[in-house]
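S., here's the first fold you wanted:
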Amino acid sequence: MSTTSVSSDKLRLLFVTQDDPFYVIQFFDVFFAEYPRDEFQLVGITIAAAFRESRIATTKRMLRFYGLVDFGRVLTRFVRARLRGRSIAARAERERVPLLATKSVNDPTYVDRIRALAPDVIVSVAAPEIFEEELLAAGRIGCLNIHSGRLPTYRGMMPTFWQMLAGEPQATITVHEMVPQLDAGAVLGEADFPLRQRDSLDRVMTETKREGARLMIEILRQIRAGETKTEPLDMREASYFSFPTRADVTRFRARGHRLV
């Protein structure tokens, strides 16, 4: 990632994220409320469907993960959020951030559109699609990802869940450069969020997203000032986690944790 200072101009930012009214939206609630408007310019946001699968497939996935009772609670919260009009898209529109729709962020037409916007940094916040090389190169300075897990140990999906299951004393929020290999780019900054012996995944995911927004603002200000420091990952220590199975959830609950 380039360390060239852009302190005389606003840092131009493009976000790529997923449609999530529970947790990812917490990141944007904090970011939109606290980012320095005299230093950053938000040139657009792309909001993709979570998991890049049909609603029926996502519903089945969530039912297997939560179980019937917790799924009912989550579904009720989802309906209430939609009835209130709570969404990342609505939040972005209130901030007058342009919405950039696409079926795939790697579609050449979309990438050309992004190049025309000339973002300095493209920021992934739980983006559900792996960025290919053309998109990775579309930002003048580069692409950043925020990951709610210590890297490279907790690469992959649901890092908060896996850290809690492993009995970690804290969840580590990481901002790192994006490279073709998933969750393998150099780290620009970290923040630790303390975990309780008996905790709620809902609480941890909510608060790490909020703290992650503040960490991202800090890192982006460093980039604008040309003051970033990067720490390459030692991939010999790498592991990768997929979406939890029902057996994983059973072990999670056996530790005394709750999902919601």
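And the second, which I think is the more interesting of the pair:
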Amino acid sequence: MTYRLFICIAWIWTTVSLYASSSKFEYIVVGGVNYSNVTVFGANATDLFFTSDSGIRNVKLKYLTPELQKQFNYDPDVAEKAEQQQIEDDKHYQENLVASITADFNAARDAREAEAQAPYSDAGLGDSIPGGSALGKPAPALDMVKWVGGKPNLTDKFAIISVWSPKSASSRKWIPAMNELYKNLSGKIEVLGVTTATESEVLKTEPKIEFPCALDPKSTFLKSAGISMLPCVILMDTNRAVRYQGHPAALNADVLQNILKNSAK
């Protein structure tokens, strides 16, 4: 707002400095409009300012009669340059205003997100994704056509999405831990898998998975989530926002119980 105030002060100062005395007219005609009982209280390079029976007005000097233009020192070249400067000043003001509003919005959004992330940060969870954070952003849609073990209902629920592959020894290593979370946190946090493998490959995997698993043969989910390493888990809150994305070692039972406790406050 300081920039806008500066423009207004500069405008007023220019008006007063160029026309310090007042003039009265029975009427003036501007662009076909008749203003009666006119008292001029200011003028600058482009505009005439006055009161009339219809209130306070300002009009462009270029629309006045030649006689009035001469009386108020109208210069077309000077007026054109002044109008262009006014346009530039207003443009800069609008740009600064948008930047200020955007900065305020982003600061408020970041503050809200920091508050929402607090229970997860307190539990020791960060975002281990290289090259940019997914925290607070919506998790990719789980709209796969085919599921092994049935599609779970995630409405108003926390969810752990385990992205894995039967061909990955590291992925298979974490299946028992995911199975335990699935059994022990049932009704509190849903556990489900996503894999690019076929149904046959999933069913043949040892150890066997006990949680539902979505088949993602075209890697649609993996690409949307920016997953480049396996195994990887995504913790999603009740609003489908990502609260953790990284190695499954971070999501042990104690951490998850702590999150549930803090999120319930």
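Why I say that: Residues 102 and 182 are 42 Å apart (CA to CA). The radius of gyration is 34 Å.

Talk tomorrow,
H.
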